[in-house]
Structure formats: C-alpha cells, structure tokens
Amino acid sequence: MNKKNIYLIIVLLVCVSILEISAGAYYFLQYPNIQTSQKKYIDFYVPKNSTWQSVKDSLKSNNLIKSEKSFDFALKLIGKNKQVICGKYVLEPNISNRAFINRIAYGMSHHVTMELKMTRYTEWVARNLSRQMEVDSASLANYLLSDSLLLRYNLNKDNSLALFIRFSKEMSWCASPAEIVAEITKEYDKFWNPERRALASKTGLTIPQIHILASIIEEETNEHEDKRMVAGVYINRIRKGMPLQSCPTVRFAWADFTIDRVLKTHLEIESPYNTYKNASLPPGPIRIPSEKSIDAVLNYVHHRYIYFCAKSDFSGTHEYAVTFQEHSRNARKYQKELNKRGIK
Length: 344
Prior knowledge:
With 344 residues, the protein is mainly α. It is built from 14 helices and eight strands.
C-alpha cells in the first residue's frame, strides 16, 4: 500500500470520526431531552443561588429529564461557564438540552402576577406575597416594617397596613424585597394623587386614619352609597368625641372573624380595637380596604346621623337615626329578625 493510499485512509478515518463526534454532539445538544413525556406547557422555577446540579436535580425530581448523561455532556460542551439565572420558566414539550441550558443561562424567564389582596396584618402581606414570589416572607416583612419606610409615609408598626393599596402587577418571580416595596409605594403614590389628598384634608383625618376608617366601613356594608352614609356617621361621631361602637373592630379585637352576632360579652374585651370602650379610631386598619371604600370616606355624605343599624330585611344596607330612641327602634327590629333566623 503506497503512501497516497495510507494518507487517504487516514483522512477518511478522521472524517468519519468528525462525523461521529458531530452526530454525537448534535444528539446531546439538539435531541429532545427535557419535558418529553408531557404534551402541555409547564412552569419550572429556578430559585436564587441555584447551580446546574440543583437545576438537574429539580428536573429529575419532577420527571422532566429523559437522559441525565446527555444533559451532563451538553453542560460540558456549552454550559460549563454559564451562570444559572433565577426565574419562572415556561417549558414546552420536547426541549433540547441546548435550548434549555441557554434559556436558563440567558434568563429567558416569564413574569408572574404579583397580587396584593385583602388581608389583615402586614406580616400576612409578606406571607401572601412570598407564596406568589421567590422572596422570603421574613425578609419582606422586615423591609415593610422598617423604620425608614414607615417614617417616609408617616406610619408606625400599628398602622403600617395603611401603606397598602390593592393591586395586581406583572413582575419577575425573583424580585427582591426592595423591588417589591418599590412597586407597593408606587401604587400608594399613584393612588394618593393631589385630588385625593385635597379631599382628605377636608375630612379632618390624616391619610392613615382614612385607611383605618375605610377598613371599618368595608366590613359594615358592600353597597357604595351605604358606605358613604356610614362614613358620614363615623365622622360625625369622631367630631363629637363619641365611641365609634363598630362591631367589625370588636371581631378584630377578638381575632375571631366567625362571630356573626356581637354580644355584650364580646364588648368586655380590653383592646385598643374595642371601639365600644375607646372613643377614638383604633390604632390601625382592620384590613386592607378597597379603593372604593377609601373613596367612600373621601366623599362621605354630610348629614346629622350618629346612629345606624342593619336593616331587618338583610339587604346589607342600614337604617339611620339622629336620636338614640329612633336607633333603639331600628335595633329591636333587626334583633327580632336575628332571633327569628336563629342567628346567635
């Protein structure tokens, strides 16, 4: 065999080897290996400080990876020096190793909906948001209750719930406490525009006090015009130095929101939230009120009423009275209906 033939054989062997390596690389990189057993899109979460090993472990524990060996080989080829970026990733069926690795390495994630809902304590706000986001509940609570943030909005730990306006926002699942708080304060500043601040000044109440009153009337009635009437009653009582005598605040004082009928025994509780014993607004909101409830306080109905009682038809609205005698008649009608319906 002459040298020319030997050279050709060597070239052919090299070409075959290159083709085999290329075919192998193509298989490891391009052949579907992730999410091959399902036909639907799924969400895949990568927490902060994850490694490629923890990502692979998560794929394995969720039965989303077909061949760990091909994934490891693909990582050695293209992912060895690439970082793992936190996020919520949407995985379609039959993803190749290359596509998956690049998606995580380049942070091609999807936003989640951060929804600030009705709740009763600032710590619960942090807990609820931590269920929607990657953020740690305790870290977020500490941020929300920090002296610097509360001082900025003239709040304290008792009325800190007055910082929150209900909203829904698309955000990165990995948003930091600072980024989350920035969105919360942005919504607060947007809501409390100059027009609303001007209305607030006419009520004689501070903005935190308006949140407190709005949180109370929201539990008194769902009907908007009735909210405005109830707000008028409470503002009249505040100006006269009278106790608000609000049943929702008593339920809050007991931390028992299953109480259907507030009885005399309930009124004995020693609490700053017991507005039957204290002639002032409670220290803080009893829930995050809706924008409509806050606006009902800002646009309260000017009238002379200082009493109200739920209507006996259970319509959710109220009878109003100027005198205690008139109020007592309304209350007896309602109590009679409660007894008739067996509500204790």
